[in-house]
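To assess whether ligand presence alters the predicted conformation, the chain was also submitted together with uridine-5'-diphosphate. Input:
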Amino acid sequence: MQQLDLFYEGKAKKIYHTDDPDLIIIHFKDDASAFNGIKKAKIKGKGIINNEITTIIFQDLAKEGIESHFVKGLNERDMLAKKLDIIPLEIVVRNVISGSMSKRLNIKEGTTIPNTIYELCLKNDKLGDPLLNRHHAVALGLTTYEDLDEMFAQTVKINNALKKLFANINITLVDFKIEFGKTKDGKIILADEISPDSCRLWDSTTKEILDKDRFRRDLGDVIQAYQQVLERLKNRK
Ligand code: UDP
C-alpha cells in the first residue's frame, strides 16, 4: 500500500489517497484551532496522542459492534481508513451542559440533564458550523430522513459505549462531536476522529478539564491533559 497525493487538509489532519481507491491515510497534525480558526497554535505531540486515542476508541467501539472507518495504525501519526463520502453534518451529543449550549441558552456549565441532547450542525467553517435540524438537512439535500435515522441510531450506541469507556477511567464524557460518511455501497459509517479535540472530558472526581478547552480557555498544560487521557485509556481494566 502506497501513499499518494494529499487530497484534503483540515485544521488538525491531512488526508492522502493511496494506491487502493477504497483506502485513505489520515495524518494527525499538531495544529490546534478554536473559535472557528481564529485562535491557532501548534501543540507539540498532540497529533501523536490523538492518533493513539482515536485508535483505542475506534477499536473499543468495534468490540461493541460499532463500525468506523478505522482500518489499522500505520505509524505514530498515520492511520489507514476506509474512503468514505463524508456527509457534511456534525452530530453533537451532550450528556452535561457546556460550551456553546451553555452560552446560547444561558445555562450554567456542568448542569446535568435528564436526557441526552443530540444536535445537528452544518459542517461549514465559513458559516461557523451553524445549528440546524433534520428538516433543514434534508431540504438542503445533504442527507435523507432514512440516513439521519441510521446516523442517530448509531450515535446513541456510540454515546453509550463511550460513556462506559470513559466512566471506567473516572472521566465524565460531557459532550462530543462525530461525523459520518458513506461507503460506495451506501453503508453509513462513523468517520473522522474521537479525541480530546472533539470531546469534552472532565475528571469525574476533581472536574479537572482534560480536553481542548484547556487550549480554548488558556488553562495551560494542554498536552499533559491529553497525555493523561491516553495513559488512563491504556491502563484501563
Ligand atoms: N466540537 C468539535 N468540532 C466542532 C464543534 C464542536 O469537535 O467544529 C466538539 C467540541 O469539542 C465539544 C462538542 O463538540 O466537545 C460541543 O461543542 P460546542 O457546540 O459546545 O461548541 P464549542 O463551544 O466547543 O465551540
